[in-house]
Each structure stands twice: as structure tokens, then as C-alpha cells.
């Protein structure tokens, strides 16, 4: 079978929506398009409300939660803000709020905001593979209000040990939030077995629609909404629920299979192996079961990630980079720096995100294209000294 | 041609998505699904970014704004919160914040929230047709920070004179926000001719997707974002833009025609006329050009709106009511009360929202169904005394 272009390996940032998800969404845009009703409504409102509750149940079931612990939002960034600022502001306390050095912007900036309001943000260090140093974390948690530690890192694929981390939080009696966006539906998680209070879930990373997400809020956790309006989502999030997107989100959750995950793992390992055949190439992040099934990240010594991205794009291969030029803030990846990687390693890093549709052919194509670009760029680089 | 069921006249709350809108959305879910890129990105990111900017231009053009004055949000409620709290908190001042008695929850509750933070919320009264009393408003505006006056009321269809109101704001040098959700694409508005600083625009009310909206922010207006994350939308709204929905929103804006509006107006007037043939029926809100093209609201004396809604639903006719039992807060419509209507008038009010697809047949069907329900309910009502 001939390979289809483009070869899209930017799935840590955005995914193609599954056709079966779209089919579900269209039904709720064309047939059952009313606002989801309350206790008394006309029959189309009721049908919309039923679809909403069914979606809530499906998503709750996936993580072992109760349906009433799932709050729908406009996506990951809103969920993180609601989880972090919502609980900290509702606590009525002032004090420490904890996170790690490899978190994504919405978490880090929520902490910064809290810092400006008089709270004390602290970031736990990570080891060379991106795992949070539990001793340091434990120390920081003493007397803290909340901590936010991501489940899976989107750049280097590190899967944190949420069970062990949750135990530390329990011991110190601190509210535990985790952005599980990159782990959800890829790594099993059961909130009944892990001491986590709030969990951010994303739709756009699992072939669901963009612009929708959820927050798991453990029963009893107090939360102040981010904005005001007629009460919806158990009083935690106003604004009419986007039923088509929510139904699509739930469908996407249903569609991910164990086989998909196993296949991605095999292809991930294959891709890692063949990329590391390229000289002076370093893997960023862990290997094996402690790395998410669909992430590969390597640094090519002497080549800039941004150049690789642009040259690969011309060959219809799409990937991502931690290069400074690529970021909107013109800073190199803080994640690789936090693992002890050099500025150059961070600048030259490339993230490849696989999906359930990624094929072996595509993996080999990626290797071929990257090898060629790296060879070419090194041959004209004054920085790269051949041995 | 036989009439299609259901007869959906709940278009002031939610609308069916236009098939042409869905077609556009699917393209950005299936073909150009990458995250919209920054200055340097791969070609799919660039294409997504171009689509985003094109959509921004289309929406800006519709209201005479510059593209960089349009900020995309998750919808009307978020836009209202961002507009009101964002500007008031960014002003660094304390003082009065003004609105009217017939605003929707997200505006009223944003003001309540500001009240709890030490600001002084005040609500301007309206006349019997729902028009804001300009003398009272003018008085309240003296020394205020911001005022929020809706463009069109969803319940009784009143179109406020934004030009005259904007002049009052200008005179008093107060920031002027308007929730234009129910007027956008139905009543012409040009921000170059009206002194309005912030304008909420909704997609879900014009056959666009739910879960997306925009806020017009006049150049120079300072705004504090509602939540934190990597800067997007000119630093005013973090979170990856939902390109498929935004593109769909812009498409929906393009699709509304003058003919659609003229047809809705004719059918609205027809529906009003035939409903008022039912004895003891009162029109709520104004007539003619000061009422939005797609809204009819009547109170049937002696009958509860909730009963009408449920009985109509059984006949596949979907509408809305200001009845207390219907609302999530079990309160009768504050809008009709504010116009001087009685508790009973509010409780028995029914809102019929037309769309560009509403037919004359449907209008007559609605009349027939409502007349029958009203007759039946009155015949068994101890409250209703026949003359």
C-alpha cells in the first residue's frame, strides 16, 4: 500500500479527529441541537441532556470516577486554571502552592498568578529522565495548600508515578491536581486507587474535537468557579454545555483500544532505535514502560530543531521541536533544561508524536528524512566537528 | 410540501448548525487538524493559522472592526466575563459598575461577583417594552468604571438603541460593553459608528457551532485575562484556538442574508398577529423595527408557561418559557417583571424563536397547537374566569 502524505507526527500537540467521532458530533449539530435541558424541558432539550449525561458517565468510567465528579470545560488550559486557582482561592488560606519544573505553561503561569496574589509558588526538580524528585517534593509539600504534578510530559514522554506521588500528598494532607492530558486513554488511571483530587482530561489529544475538556473533581473538594453565570456543571462552570463536542469527546474515549496502545509502543521503540542510529543523537526522556506509548524525543547534536522542523515540513513530515525560535516566547524547552540537558540539546530537540494511525512505513520515512536533513545541516555547520 | 417535524421554535436558546458550516468544520477536523502555528511552524500549522486569521477577518468585517480587535473565546458567557471583569479589574479603580435589569445571568452575576470584591453594581431600570431608561442610566454612569447593556434581549426581543446609549457612555467617559449575542447578524452594527468598547458575539445562535464565541475589544482597551497560559489571542485568552469551530463560526456569519432577516420579520409579525387572536393574550416587548426579527413573546392569561412548553413538546413543537418551574433557579422571568409585568404574566410567558428555516406552515402549526393547549388548560383552571 502506498504511503499517504502528509506524515503527521505532531500528535503531542493536536490530533486528527476520528471519523466516528465526527459522525456522533454531526448528529448533535443536525438532529438534537437544543440546549441541554434542566428538570423540565421539551423533548429535544431532554435528549440533549441525556446525551450529555451519557458522555459524562463514559468519561467517568474510564478513570473510575463518579459521573458527578466530571466537570466539562473548554479544554485543558481552562481545566488546569480551574483546578489550581479554583481550589487555592476556595481554600481561604495563604501559603505554598507546588508544582514541578517540567509543567506546561498553563500550570506554571497559574502558579505565577497565585504568586502575585501573595501565595508562595515552588517548583520541584526532576531527574535526568524527567521524574519528579520525590524527596524534594515531599519536603516542599509540608504545609502547602495544593500541588500540581502532570501525569505525562508532552515533550519527553515521562510518566510520573502518580500512585507514589499521591501517597506523598496524602501524607502531607495537600490537595493534589494532575494534568493528565497526555496520559489519558494511553496509560491506565483509576482515581479509586490513586490519591489524586483533581485530574485534567483533554479531548483534542485523543482524536476528539478541540475546544472541549474535562476536570475530574473528587467529591468534597471545594472549588471556586473561574467565571460567573447561570449554574451549570454542578455550579462549577457556567455557559451552555457544548453537547456535540462533549459527545464527540466521549466517543473518542471509547474508541481507543489496548491494541492501539500496544501498536504505538512497538512503533515508538522502533522509531527510537532507528533514530539513534544517526550519529551524535541523544534520546531525551525515559525508555520502556515509564514512557508514554506515543512519544519520541531526540536531540541531534549540532543541528537546530527549528531548521529540522521546516525542512521536514517541506518533505511533508510534520513534527515538533523544543527549539527557541519555534516557541512564541523564543525560549528553548524548559523541560529538557530541567532534566539537566544543555542549552544546545534543548535547542536541537525534536518531538515526534505518534497516533493510532501511524504506520511502520511512516516511521521509516521519518527516519530517512531526518537523517538526510541532519547530514546536510551538519555538513555546512561551523559548530559541528566531525570526529 | 408536507411539514417536517419537529417544529423547532427555541432558536433564542440554540440553533441547528448549518450543513455548510459542518462541511467547513469537517475539513479542519480531518485535513488541517494541526494546532494553529506561530511565526515558524510546519505547513499544516501554517494552514491552520491562516484559516484562523481568515475567520477573524470575516467576523471583524461584519461589525466594522479590525481583525486584531477580535478575540476568540469558548462562547458568550466567557466573553461576557472577560469583558466585564477583565476591564474592571485591569482598570485598577474601585467604584460603580452599571448594567440593566433585563440582562442575562452571566452579566448580572459578573456584577454580583464584582460587588463582593468591593465594587458597586447598579442596575438601570427599563420601560414597559424593555428599553433602558436613558435618563436613569445617564445618572448612574457618572463616575462609573464600566457599564454593560445588552444589544438585544433574548426573551422579549427588545433592540436597545446602542448609538444613543453609546453617546451617554462617551459623555461620561465610561467603558461600554454590550452582549450582542442575540443581535449579531440580525441587526446591523458598526463599531466605527457606535461608541462601544467591547462586544460579545456568539456562534451558537446563528447556526454556527456551540462552544465558541468572540469578544470585540476596541484598540486601546485594557483587559486582564480570565485565565493563565501560553499567550494566544493577543495575550487575552490562552488555550489553543479551536480552529474547526472558529472556522465554522465565521462561515455561519457569512451565510446569513438580508433575505433571511426580511423573511423572519414577516413570519414574526404573522405569528404575533395570529397568537394575539387568542383571547386574553398579551404581547411582551416592542413591535416593528425595534424588535429583533426572530423573537415573539406572549403571555396567555391563566395558563402556566411550563405546562404549555410540556404539552407543546408532546405535539413536537419546541419553544421556551419564562415560567418559574422551567428555570434552574425556580424564579419567574426577571425580564418581564422588570418591564412592569405581573408575576402571573411572567409565569405564563412563552418565547418563540424563529430561524432562517422557519416556514409559514410551522407558524400556523404553532398557533393551532398553542390555541388548543390554552383553551384546554383554561377550561380546567380555577383561576381563569371566562367573561
Structure description:
The structure is a homodimer of 387-residue chains. The first copy, chain A, has 387 residues and is an alpha/beta fold. Chain A folds into two domains: 133 residues, Alpha-Beta Complex (Aspartate Aminotransferase, domain 1); 224 residues, Type I PLP-dependent aspartate aminotransferase-like (Major domain) (Aspartate Aminotransferase, domain 2). Chain A contains twelve helices and 13 strands. The first copy, chain A, has a seven-stranded mixed beta sheet with strand order 2-8-7-6-5-3-4, with helices on both faces. In chain A, strands 9-10-13-12 form a four-stranded antiparallel beta sheet. In chain A, strand 3, helix 4 and strand 4 form a beta-alpha-beta unit. In chain A, helix 5 runs parallel beside helix 6. The two termini of chain A are 40 Å apart. Chains A and B meet through helix 1, helix 2, helix 3, helix 4 and helix 7 of A and helix 1, helix 2, helix 3, helix 4 and helix 7 of B.
Separate helix tally of chain A: 12
- Which shape of chain A, going by the Cα principal axes? globular
CATH hierarchy: architecture of the largest domain in chain A: 3-Layer(aba) Sandwich
Order of helices and strands of chain A: EHHEHEHEHEHEEEHHEEHEEHHEH
What would CATH call the class of the largest domain in chain A?
A: Alpha Beta
Rounded radius of gyration of chain A (Å): 22 Å
Q: What is the CATH topology of the largest domain in chain A?
A: Aspartate Aminotransferase, domain 2
